[in-house]
Every structure is written in C-alpha cells, then in structure tokens.
Write a structure and sequence with these properties.
341 residues; alpha+beta; Metallo-beta-lactamase, Chain A; 10 helices
Length: 341
C-alpha cells in the first residue's frame, strides 16, 4: 500500500539561503557530515525579531552558513529565542552558540534539556568503556568495539555548550509567535520528550524527527538505558498524533515538507509491525542482537550506523520481550541470547 502523501512544490534552499513555506515561516537547510546529509530548520517571523526552531550541528561549515544567514537573511531583526525539538546534536548543536551570540534563551522540554546537557558535559573517555560494555552484551566482536571507539564521534564534540538555563516546554503548552498560537505536542520513542509544534491558524505541524516523509525515525535504545522500551513509546505517539487534522501540512527535519499525516502514520506503524515480524522470523535459534541485526539490516554499514542498527535491533527485541513473544537469557560471558517462546 503506497504512502498517500504529497510533497510541497518547492526546492530545498542551499545552506545560507531561505525559502518561505507559509506566511512568516521560512525554511533553512544545513548540511550534516553523516550519511543523512542535511537537516531542515525553521525561522519564524516574531514581531520585531525571529524565533528559530532547531539549529544544525556545531561545526565550521554550519557556523559559516549561520554567519551568512545572520548577515543577509534576518532583515536587521535579531533572534529572540531558540526552540529545539529534542537533544540530538543536529537539532541542538548550534543552540549555545546562537543563544550566547544574541543573549537569548533556549526553549526545550525538560527531559530533552537534561539529556542534552548531561551528554554535552560527559567528555570522560570512560564513556567508550561504557559503550563497549553495552555492545559486548549484544555480541559485537572486539574488532567492532575498537572500530566504534575509533570512528564514532562523541556528543560533546558535535554541540556548542548547551545553556545552563532554559524555558521549559510541556505537552499542551501554547507558544505565541507573531500573534499566532503554536501548540506543543510531545512525542516519544525517537527521543525522550520530543516537542512538535502545531499551528491551527496555518494548518502547519513542525514535526521534527517524530514524523518524516521517507525515512523512519531511529527508534533505538541508548547505551545509558539498554533495557528501555522506546518502540512502545513511539507506537503510542503514533496514535496520539492521529488526533491532529489529516490535512495539516508537515515541516519535517529531513527530506521535504509534505501533507498526508494519517497515511504517513499508518506507514510508520506498518513498518514497525513488519520489522517485528522480521525479527521473530529471523530468531530461528538462540541468537545475539548482533546476529539478528546482521540478518535484518544492510551490510557494509560504517561503525556509527552499525551502532544505530544494533540500537534499533535491541529496541525491537526489548519490545518483543515485554510483550512475551521472545525470551532473553544471558551467557556466562555476559552476552544476551534471544529465543522465540
């Protein structure tokens, strides 16, 4: 069944440029040094200034693009606040730099700020040991552990210092921007307390990573919470977002703006139902998470994407364990094995 979505007839702006996608709502796109090579940001006219939603990663390329935006595209009006949907570095990376530049505040949900602030302060090399312990339980080889240690970037190197203070966003809050109300709609699963923004007047949803038109948001356990069940959280968020109008236009963090919310939510649900079936079918004997990840995901991934794939694998396996479809046992060497009931 194809996704019944329609894309805006717009071309993505190059770094340092903007495109107006709705009255007072401007689209920016910043490059990323990853396999997913871009992020969409949203600059909202706000009286005599601007409100920014998400920021891009903190690196020299993005700083240069922001310098161009600040010099040429703000029409002499300053940023008044920075609002970040969640703590992932492509969304919050430039927040501290921009907040310090303009002497303005950061707006986030509490859990996202806490996670981002915590990770940004953790420069201790021992975090590699912690990651290694988690990856060992999934059945990764010593060679892969060394490769992830060597090639996976640390969070604190991807973000400017996250401000010590913030303004809290909570589910159902209303943020007034240029005379229009934007409702905070919280999603979970991809991140702990992801803030989407819905404007009824514009029929517009800034969805962050919670709803993307082509790719599915990464639903993975974090190394500091390996027994979590983020997939249950994400599936609950899908049902919650069905409460928004189907005709809303969606501004996602990746790919192109689109419409067709409910069809996309249906597709995301089908994707994860199908992925759960794949893991059950692949689990023909007691297997490690790494073995199951290799059976489901593409081969030839770089170490960072191997870690993402294993995190997604464990998230789906944790879901299946919680719902009684498989059981997990631990070998004497600390590696987990998963088997169908």
């Amino acid at each position: 069944m194809p996704d019944a979505i329609e894309y805006f007839e717009l071309t993505a702006p190059p770094p340092g440029e903007t495109v107006e996608v709705a009255p007072g709502v401007h689209w920016l796109r910043m490059p990323l040094p990853f396999r997913l090579n871009h992020i969409n940001l949203w600059l909202l006219e706000d009286g005599d200034g601007w409100t920014l939603v998400d920021t891009g990663i903190f690196d020299e390329v993005t700083v240069a693009a922001w310098e161009k935006i600040l010099a040429e595209k703000l029409a002499g009006r300053p940023l008044r606040r920075v609002l970040c949907t969640h703590y992932h570095p492509d969304h919050v990376g430039m927040a501290g730099w921009l907040c310090e530049r303009f002497g303005i505040g950061l707006w986030m949900t509490e859990r996202e700020w806490l996670w981002g602030r915590s990770w940004s302060l953790d420069s201790d090399p021992a975090v590699y040991d912690h990651q290694g312990i988690f990856l060992h339980t999934t059945g990764c080889s010593p060679e892969l552990l060394e490769a992830t240690h060597r090639e996976t970037p640390r969070y604190h190197t991807l973000v400017s210092p996250i401000p010590r203070a913030f303004t809290r966003l909570s589910d159902g809050d209303t943020v007034a921007i240029d005379g229009r109300d934007w409702q905070v709609v919280i999603g979970t699963g991809h991140a702990p307390e992801h803030a989407c923004l819905y404007c009824r007047d514009l029929d517009l949803l800034i969805s962050g990573d919670q709803v993307l038109p082509k790719i599915t948001p990464i639903i993975a356990v974090e190394i500091n919470e390996p027994d979590a069940n983020p997939l249950d959280d994400f599936l609950a968020s899908i049902e919650k977002l069905r409460g928004l109008p189907d005709n809303v236009d969606i501004l996602p963090s990746h790919n192109l703006p689109f419409s067709g919310l409910h069809a996309r939510l249906d597709a995301l649900r089908r994707h994860h139902d199908g992925r759960l079936d794949q893991f059950l079918e692949a689990c023909v004997r007691p297997m490690t998470a790494k073995e199951l990840s290799d059976a489901i995901f593409s081969q030839g991934l770089d170490p960072q994407n191997v870690v993402f794939a294993i995190g997604e694998t464990v998230a789906h396996l944790n879901y299946l364990c919680r719902h009684g479809s498989i059981v997990r046992e631990t070998r004497d060497d600390g590696v987990h094995l998963y088997a169908r009931r």
